[in-house]
Write a structure and sequence with these properties.
about 140 residues, mainly beta, five-stranded mixed barrel, 8 strands, about 0% helix, about 40% strand
Amino acid sequence: MGEGDGFRLLGTRCAACASVFFPREVAHCRNPGCAGGHLEEVALSRRGRIWSYTDSRYRPPSPYVSDPELPWEPYALIAVELESERIVVLGQAVPGITVADLAVGMEVEVVPGVLSEDAETAWTTWHWRPTEVRA
């Protein structure tokens, strides 16, 4: 949702137990200890701290979108514990950031990204960028 500094991931919060979910939940509260309540869409924290990370050295299977004719480009995959919600969200690092640039506990922020594109379509996603890196 949004662009630039206004970009946020959208989740849901249960009105009964205040549990936050990402990706969004539309049917029911996923908390097994909750009888359920109204689910409200919420903008999640823009920042968090790296909980774990690794690199992707192989081409994932479908539904991941990639051109099999092009050579595979590894990317860093980061698990981030969001600042306020204390949930962990997985995503790619911004292009150019490798596992050598990352450390557990490092602060990162969510930014818009492009997963793949062709002449007609751009498949968008989110990326994690260390807060020290500005592009």
